[in-house]
Amino acid sequence: MSARAFAGPAQAVFADAYPEQPTLLDHGLVDHPLLKLDALAELATRIRPIDAEYNRGDLPVGIDPADTPSNGLSVEETIRSIEQCGSWMVLKFVEQDPAYRDLLHDTLAELEDTVRPSTGAMLKREAFIFISSPGAVTPFHFDPEHNILLQVRGTKTMTIFPATDEALVSGEAHEAFHAGGHRNLPWRDDFAGRGEPFALEPGKAVYVPVKAPHWVRNGPDVSISFSITWRSEWSYREEYARRMNALLRRSGLRPASPKRYPHQNHLKSFGYRVIDKVKRTTGLAGS
Ligand SMILES: [Fe+2]
What we know:
By secondary structure, the protein is of the alpha+beta class. The protein folds into 2 domains: 8-231, Jelly Rolls; 236-281, no CATH class. The chain contains 8 helices and 11 strands. The protein has helices at 8-17, 37-46, 75-80, 98-109, 112-119, 171-178, 233-250, 266-281, and strands spanning 23-26, 52-56, 87-91, 123-132, 137-141, 146-153, 156-160, 196-200, 204-208, 214-218, 223-231. It has a 7-stranded antiparallel beta sheet with strand order 1-9-6-11-4-3-2. Helix 6 crosses helix 7 (233-250) and helix 7 (233-250) packs across helix 8 (266-281). It is globular and about 55 Å long. The N and C termini lie far apart (49 Å). It binds fe (ii) ion. The site of fe (ii) ion (FE2) has 3 residues, from loops.
């Protein structure tokens, strides 16, 4: 399938925004056969069971991951009854299926000329498909990837917050995430005004910068969204600088946070990689 996802105007909008500004983009994958509910119900039975995650959709904006309730249905039951069952589902790493891998790679290839000169090669290309019941909420969280969410069916509003605002997410919270913590973030009602809502409908996509916190509320219909993600050399350097900060903090210091693009965080990321390599080669990893 060679439907073009991003035509010329969307390419120009993306190039203006990348990598730090969230922005809406037009896309051309609304009628793609791989993104219809029937095709997705089949996909859900082909991928590894662990990669089909689902739970009840009537969640508050902020929730402790341990409190997320199950919907009591199987993966197929959930997807086939998504209009009634009040659920939220994600099919993860759908590039494990060859047809979806081609779709992901073809779509990302359209953006490579913008991405590569700015943040380096597109690494760790992964795709996710979100299928959600009317009104479902995805709680406040952040992700370590560059992400474009393409809305294929139904509507939803994604509210995106500045990645630079450490009143929303502290340096310690960034470091805890990279040490294996959950992506969900503590929510406070006074955060609400600091986010920018992006209204999505079929044919609209939103670009989400690395670690920009966000939460999502579905509209009144079943929603299908296709999320295409990649890591960049820049995003890895930011991560390694955070990991370096965790080490410094454990030594009693109060390190400054890594700076956002175009700052490159070379020094701390290099320092972390050296320390990590020494730990691994001397058998001290994890100490
Ligand atoms: Fe997300």
